[in-house]
UniProtKB/TrEMBL annotation:
Stretches the record annotates as Disordered: 1-39, 79-223
Residues in coiled coil: none
Name of this chain's protein: rRNA-processing protein FYV7
Compositional bias per record (Basic and acidic residues), positions renumbered to this chain: 101-110, 119-150, 160-217
């Protein structure tokens, strides 16, 4: 049986790897004028991009022209100033510095002199004049009755005065009911003790009469 023929890249895989073309990375899809169909929108985008590039180039050009103009004007002004103003000699500058130092020294000496304490003549004359007597102010006539002259103000009514009155009334009624309840309780207990018979089995009329008298007095007092 005949042997199977081997392929060239199976026999030498390293050679196959070197001879193969490198794999190119695919770029993503970009949305732009190149991928748009030919029409109005594509032409609009192309025109806008062209105008933007033109404007940026125009702006750079105008900035460069303006800077060149400013430099030229500055150089011209500087040259004119150097021509018109003569150069001062060095000894004149030194003399001026000495004069400035001298003026400063004079100013310091003037400031160091103490101020005089003499007053102005007009001021001295005003102080020497005798002081005029002040006329006493008329005192207000005192009222004999101070209470009559004052207006009696009524106390300001509180915003919750009505509610406070109702609450006070309810409190008094509750206190009255409580006292009535306590009196009835005490009177009932006293009557119970008074009705107990003595050792001989007789009623204690004196004690009962005292309890009844207290009850009558309370009823009369309430009336």
């Amino acid at each position: 049986m005949a042997t199977k023929r081997t392929r060239s890249f199976d026999a030498n895989p390293a050679e196959m790897r070197t001879t193969e073309a490198p794999v190119k990375k695919r770029k993503g899809f970009s949305v732009g004028p190149a991928n748009l169909p030919d029409g109005t929108y594509r032409r609009k985008i192309q025109l806008a991009n062209y105008k933007k590039k033109k404007n940026s180039a125009q702006k750079i050009k105008s900035d460069l022209i303006q800077k060149a103009k400013v430099k030229k004007a500055y150089a011209k002004v500087k040259a004119e100033q150097l021509v018109t103003t003569p150069r001062r000699p060095t000894y004149a500058v030194a003399e001026e510095d000495d004069g400035n130092e001298k003026d400063k020294g004079d100013d310091k000496s003037l400031q160091a002199e103490p101020a005089t304490l003499d007053l102005h003549p007009d001021r001295q004359a005003m102080l020497d004049e005798p002081e005029p007597e002040r006329t006493p102010k008329p005192e207000r006539a005192q009222r004999h009755d101070g209470d009559q002259g004052r207006r009696v103000r009524k106390p300001k009514r509180s915003a919750f005065s009505k509610e406070m009155e109702i609450a006070e009334k309810r409190r008094q009624e509750a206190e009255k009911r409580r006292e009535e309840r306590e009196f009835k309780q005490k009177n009932r207990e006293a009557m119970t003790r008074a009705r107990r018979p003595d050792r001989n089995g007789k009623r204690r009329l004196g004690r009962e009469s005292k309890v009844l008298l207290d009850r009558v007095q309370r009823m009369v007092g309430q009336a």
